[in-house]
Amino acid sequence: MSRLLRSLLSLLLVCGLLGGCVSTRLATAAESPWQAIPLNTRSSGLDLAFSDENHGILVGSNRLILETSDGGRSWQERNLDLPAEENFRLISIDFAGNEGWIAGQPGLVLHSTDTGRTWSRLLLTGKLPGDPYLVTALGPDRAELATSVGAVYRTDDGGGHWTALVEDATGAVRDLRRDRMGGYVSVSSLGNFYADWRPGETVWTPHQRPSSQRVQAMGFTPSGHLWMVNRGARIRFPDPESTPTDTGDPAFGDAVIPITNGYGYLDLAWAPDGSIWLGGGNGTLLSSRDGGTTWLRDPVGQQQPSTFTRILFVGDGKGFVLGERGNLLRWAGAADRVG
Question: For the whole model, what pTM was predicted?
Fold first, then answer.
């Protein structure tokens, strides 16, 4: 038996023992629905939101705040009336009509009633557990604020008073998301467990991770179920044929591993056309059009020298991929794909 044949047989045996091999290569799509948008900054975008079809604001590290009036095709720098010696990380923004909210670290919450032309800084009590992490605009003078330790508060008077919605915080988090129904999922800072909370409950419900790989990020599918990204470039989608475990933990399917290239995944999102998009380190931007069974590299993402940290689809079909050091991709869709 030749040396080559013995090597191939050994490889097949190892693959069988491990339950399947994963390629370190992945085909690149022939075209891309994304366009790279130049930003005159080296700061990293962390979140963005739109007040109407055309007007939006992007926030990020080093007090970064940019504004668009053409749906995100171009962005201009804005200034905030904040002390020059304070270097805030603007981590979350949301609009409900003309009313906007920004959450920043350390200890910053801003409120606007004129689509972000002017912002008022709210005074937060020193007893607030954790730093502002996620803000959600709910309507006139109403918003929810979640902190970096999983405390959740609501205001009904424009930020003058905040009411705690949970009795105990969940602990330091590395990721925290809110669904359209007002529920939250949080990932512990070490990624060793996650927790969820629903409106009306008084405490978070902790859950064990479904595998030995630590949890990197979690979020909600379009139908409201949970997805999970684990260390080791593994994705888990909800298992539609399973019921929650005896402990009440949600049921996930087997791990999906699109490619093993040494770079982890940081975010996942569903596009308006039903495709799934996955972002991570070193320009990793992958897409699947069959529910996560097969994947392709995105050619525009490969050209960006950046780690992609957030994938956002907002409002009326707009989408953006936020990257480090001023990298931004804008969803062009099928009508204007890049070849």
Answer: 0.89
